[in-house]
Structure formats: C-alpha cells, structure tokens
Amino acid sequence: MRIGNLSGRLTLFTERGAVDVEKASEGRFGADPQAAYQDWDGLRSWAAGLDASSVTAVEFDPADLGAPAPAPAQVFAIGLNYRAHAEEAGLAAPEGLPPVFTKFRSALAGPVGTVTLPPGGHTDWEVELVVVIGRHAERVAAADAWGFVAGLTVGQDLSERIGQLAGSAPQFSLAKSHPGFAPMGPWLVTVDELDDPDDLELSCAIDGETVQHARTSDLIFSVPALIEALSGLVPLYAGDVIFTGTPAGVGMGRKPQRFLRHGEELVTRITGIGELRQRFVDAVPEGA
Ligand code: ZN
How confident is the model at residue 104 (pLDDT cuts 50, 70, 90)? Predict the structure, then answer.
C-alpha cells in the first residue's frame, strides 16, 4: 500500500491515480493524514479489500503532496548510523545506541518544494530512510519490530552545520529544524511492497551530480535495532517518525567542503519508494 497526504487529505496512491480515502471509504476514515495511524490495521484491511476500479482516482501534481506523517507526536533522528559517515565526520562509530536528537515538527515538509537557506552558507544534505510507527511500541524486541512499522518513506535531514556544531553542547536539533529542513515523502510505502526492507538503495544528487549513494543494509543500527533501542527507553506512539541516519557523502566531509547554494536542486531517492525534490534559495533581506 502507498498512502500519504495530497493537499492535506489522506490519500491512497494506486496505479490509476490518487484516491481520496474519506470519500472512497464513505467517511469510515477521516481526511486527516496523521489520524490514519490511529487505526492503521483498520485502514490497511479496508485498503486491501478495496476494489480500486470502483472508486474515483485522479491525476495529481507531486508539488501538492504533503508529508505522509505531517503532525507526529515525536520525531526521532539518529546520528552516525553508517560507519563511513562517522569516518568522514571525524568521529568514532558509536559502540552502543548512536546519538539521538529531534527534528522539530515545524521543520516537516512535503516531498517537493523550495527551502530558504539560513545565513552563513553552511547548509548540508543528508539522505535518510524514514520510518513511521504504526502502533504503540514499548520494549519491543528487534525480532518483532517490523510489525510496529506503518511504512517507510524518503527523508532529507537538512542540516545547518555552523549551529549544529558550535559550542560545548551543540544545537543539533535546532540547526536541523529550520523551516523545510525535514522534507519527507512522496508517500508511505508499506513494508510488504519492498523486496527487502533491510536493504534499500538510497541516494541524493545536486543538479544531477550524485553526492550520496549507499544501502540501508550498511546501517549500524538497523530499523529493528533502532525500534528495540528507542522503545526500550521511551514509548513510541503510532504516527511517530524516525529519521534513521545518513550514509557518507555529505558536504561537510568533503575536501574542500561543499554546501548547498542558491538555485541548486537536490533530488533524494530511495529505490522502491520514490523521490524528493528541493530547490534552495537565499533569504531575501527584509526590506529588499
Ligand atoms: Zn541525519
């Protein structure tokens, strides 16, 4: 199942086009995309039984897609979860649970859009697999963890490196939460649609030049391991979002360093899920 957020409404994406869930279910399910996770099993069984030829499906513009989980109670993000990325950051790969921070909910955005670069010119890219939780999870064992996942989507953990790394207790969460710094989408793909959800190809490219390319089988903490570790410490709520960490190839780790510039377009892909497309612009000074 591919499900998400079209113009703020819960939408099923079928081969024939976009199906509005509230209308097609005659009101059994509401239009709020975030509410879908409160009755995820019900939604899945309704969608599985739906005769797609009997409901209205429409074409759509990807620019009208929103985040598939636009208002999660919690957003977790994982640092240093690929060895080669820890190396390029000049840091030791974590022995236990990698560093965990948040991307504030206000940073969430849909898969296509324009992002204003904060001043300082140090905004970096980080392709990431994003997990959305499908049911309340506490002290879940890794072996059971996929059963608590609603689905997977593509994310960018855009990061302003000056603020992220400055000071004795660096501002990871704030520097990674400027408006539009957590685009995700284009939709949520359920795990059954993927050949191997533990081995997905992910990449991103700036104006067509590939800068990151890896597989999620290289994660130090796999999705099940992350769910076991996080749910052992805090409850995970249905609809929560986990950014699972980025592989090597970020701009900060390059020699010379490279950061996103005005006019550049970043395309972020995970094979079997889809792509994000962000255009970057400098802030226009007030009064200009
Ligand atoms: Zn990241």
Answer: very high
